[in-house]
Amino acid sequence: MYQLPHEIVQLVVYYVGDDQDTLAALNRTNRALYNATLCTLYHAPSFTSVHQFRVFVENLSPKTASKVRKIDLKHLPHRWNAALSEHVMALLRKADNINYLDLCLCRINQRVSRLAIEKWPLQYLSLNSHRNVNDDLFASLPSNCLENLLEVDLGETNITDQSLMILADRCPKLNSLELEGCQHVTEVGIEYVTKKCQQSLKFLNIRDCFNVVPGPDNNLDGTHVVIDWAAWGFEDVIDDDDDDDDDNNNENA
After folding, report:
1. Cα–Cα distances in Å, from 247 out to 237, 240, 241, 243?
2. Contact present, 92 and 115 (Cβ < 8 Å)
3. 139 falls in which pLDDT band (50, 70, 90)?
4. In what order do the strands lie in the sheet with 176-178?
5. What is the pTM assigned to this prediction?
6. Beta strands of 86-200 (E only): which ranges?
């Protein structure tokens, strides 16, 4: 294997793809394959248990930590029962270049979330179902640490319109915003986001945001942004109103 050209070694790694077990086996084979698999193996690691994630963080070296770009824990079993703040903090101390962070349903305190947003050049961020996330998180952030964000998922958090306005003001590249189940946002914040981010925002999920009500005083119906409304919502209300009008007209006739 030492005698093979670098291009052939890279081709072997390419055909392995994202099979982490095989990549890990190759990584331990010899120096040539160790170097060839390092970036692929650590770029976007996947985990099948909380223990595996903890071991991964504990064993990161400066060399391997520099390769990590994506941490996605949304499929990690039992993450909602495991205290992960300590290990995310350890990851913060070791890795500098993470740009994708999905902590959906993880038990992590708001301070650790804030430090992660401050340090890493995030393009994707999910704090979905973090009930401890509120306006204090975004109000305390430096103004320049949100400028790389492209996609944000804050569904089922306790943010209000204040956080939406901060995001709109500080995320010039924002193209997707997930707010499903955010009970404290209103049409005021939603309209502000759609106007402020009209050059970049393409998709907005406000399913089950029961305090968001479109009407003649806002421009939500006229925005170019694809808005995913709640199933309970406005089309049914409009249809019911139309039916009532039809009934009244029939009675008058």
Report:
1. 15, 11, 10, 6
2. yes
3. very high
4. 70-72, 100-102, 124-126, 151-153, 176-178, 203-205, 226-228
5. 0.83
6. 100-102, 124-126, 151-153, 176-178
